[in-house]
């Protein structure tokens, strides 16, 4: 029988345009504590929680949980902070349930024995054939040296949400992408 050690998430709760009261902090911890049952053998898991209130009175909650070889992340914006917290908690739990068997398979393949996601009853998840990821298309790309602005123009002309290119200044591989807010992001590699 697999010995299972339940861990408690640690929390780093920050607020933007809102004071994080003890009641709000406790509510965040209570809602995210239900995720503890999915982790084992990692005592240093920290949930980074960012609470924001906008001028239109909407409340946004962002939660990022960096794990070995995986980052769980969810965000939700509603007209009520507590509802946003509830929704983010539910999104994270759905992510974990959906991907736990894939994550476990990959960690076993890499020989990582100290990170497994479990079912809520403590049993390690078993993957079914339907849960496998299928690559349906493969593309080869030639990385052309350019600056990020040119890469954004190329991405927009192609109608894509991201574009991979060689940064002419750094000679490293970079990616520009369209964010949900319509603006652009840049990912640079450490080559």
Could you spell the SSE succession in H and E letters? EHEEEEHEEHEEE
Widest sheet: strand ordering: 1-3-4-5
Radius of gyration (Å): 20 Å
What's the structural domain tally? Answer: 2
* CATH class assignment of the largest domain: Alpha Beta
Structure classification: alpha+beta
**Percent helix range:** 25-40%
| Total strands | 10
State the shape. Answer: globular
> Largest sheet at a glance?
4 strands, mixed
**Which stretches are low in confidence, meaning pLDDT under 50 for 5 or more residues running?**
1-7, 122-130
Mean pLDDT: 80
CATH superfamily of the largest domain: Ribosome hibernation promotion factor-like
The total count of helices amounts to 3
CATH topology of the largest domain: Double Stranded RNA Binding Domain
GO molecular function, one term: ribosomal small subunit binding
InterPro entries: HPF/YfiA_ribosome-assoc, HPF_long/plastid, RHF-like, RHF/RaiA, Ribosom_S30AE_C, Ribosom_S30AE_C_sf
Function: Required for dimerization of active 70S ribosomes into 100S ribosomes in stationary phase; 100S ribosomes are translationally inactive and sometimes present during exponential growth.
Subunit structure: Interacts with 100S ribosomes.
Characteristic terms for this protein:
alpha+beta; Double Stranded RNA Binding Domain; SHC Adaptor Protein; disordered N terminus; 4-stranded mixed beta sheet; 29% strand; 191 residues; 10 strands
Structure description:
This protein is α+β, with helices and mostly antiparallel strands and 191 residues long. The chain has two domains: 10-131, 2-Layer Sandwich (Double Stranded RNA Binding Domain), CATH 3.30.160.100; 145-188, SHC Adaptor Protein (2-Layer Sandwich), CATH 3.30.505.50. Helices cover 27% and strands 29% of the residues. It is built from three helices and ten strands. It has helices spanning 22-32, 81-109, 148-158, and strands at 10-16, 39-40, 46-53, 59-67, 70-78, 116-117, 145-146, 162-167, 173-178, 184-188. The strands form three sheets. It has a four-stranded mixed sheet, with helices on one face. Strand 4 and strand 5 form a beta hairpin. It is globular.
